[in-house]
# Entry
Amino acid sequence: MLASSPAHSQESATLSFGRVDPDQPVSQVIEFDNDSGRLLEVEHIRLTPPFRAEDITTTILPGGQGSFRLILGEERVPGPYEGTISVEFKGAAWRPITFNVEGYVIPPIEFRPRSFFRIATHAGAQRRASLEIINHRDEPLNILSAEEASERFSVQLETIEEGQHYRLNLLLNGSAAPGKQTDRITLHAQPPTSEPLIVTADTWIRERVYHFPDSVDMGRLPLAIATDDAAVQQLAQTLMVYRPGTDDFEVIARVDVPFIAISSERGPDGDRYQMTLTLMPERLEPGPIHAQVIIETNDEAFPMLKVPIQGGILPAD
# Structure
C-alpha cells in the first residue's frame, strides 16, 4: 500500500510504498482536489518506471475530486526507489501536481543496513562494525565463511538463523598503517550463488593528531554579504583538531592572511580544539581566497599541521 499526504490542484505530495518484495502487489488510488472554480481536464500523467496509472479521472468539476490508480509494475530494481509522478492538465493556467515517490524493493539477498562497511578510527584504537545478510529466497542460503586479505581488519561470520540470517562483524585494527583504503570481503556460500556475494570495506585510520574537515571552505560570497557583520558571523566555519587518548593537548593556531580571524576553544577532556574561522569585513577585497591555517602542537611527532582554506569574494555589480 502507498501512504500519501493530501494534494490539491497546484500543490505537491509525498508517497511512500515502504518495503516490498520484488513480486508483492503494490496498488493505491491517489486522489486530488479541484479547489478552483473552473473545470479541470487531465492531459497526461507522467510516471517514473516501473509505475503506471490506470482508472484516471479525466474531467474534474469545480470543487470536485479526481483520482487515478497507481500501480508498481513488475520490472523492479532491488534497492531504494525514488521517482516522480506528474499529473498535467490542459490549459497553461494550471501547474501540474507533482508526487515524489519513495520506497525500497527488497532484494532476494539483502544486506542491512547496507552492502558495505564505512568505518574510521584513530591510530592505536580498534573500532567495530557489523552488517546483516538476510535471505528472502525460497531456497536456503548457506554461508560457510567470509574471506578477506587485508591486514587492516579481521572479520567474523555469525549465524543467527541457519540458511536465512547472518551477521558479519568487522574489527578495524588502529595499529595498521594510517590512511584510507578499500578492500573486498568475499562470502562463500554452498551451493554458490549466481553472483558472488561481495562486501566492500572502506576504512580510514587517522594519524595520532588529525583535523576535520580536510580543508576549510569559506564559500564564494558577494562583496555585499562578505562585508555585512551579521552575515559574516553566520557564515563562520568550524575546524576541529584532535589528539585522542590524551588530556594535555596544546595548540597555537593562526591564519596566514590578514582578513580571516581565528579563535580556539579547548575541549573539556583536553584532547581536542574547536577553531572558528571568520572573515574580517574591514579587510576584505574581491578575489579568490587561497590561505592556510597553521597549527603548532605539543606533539613531537606532529609539531605542525597546515590546513588549506579556499573560497572567494565576488566583486560588487
About this structure: The chain has two helices and 25 strands. The helical segments are 223-226, 229-234. The CA atoms of residues 55 and 118 lie 46 Å apart. Confidence is low (pLDDT under 50) at residues 1-10.
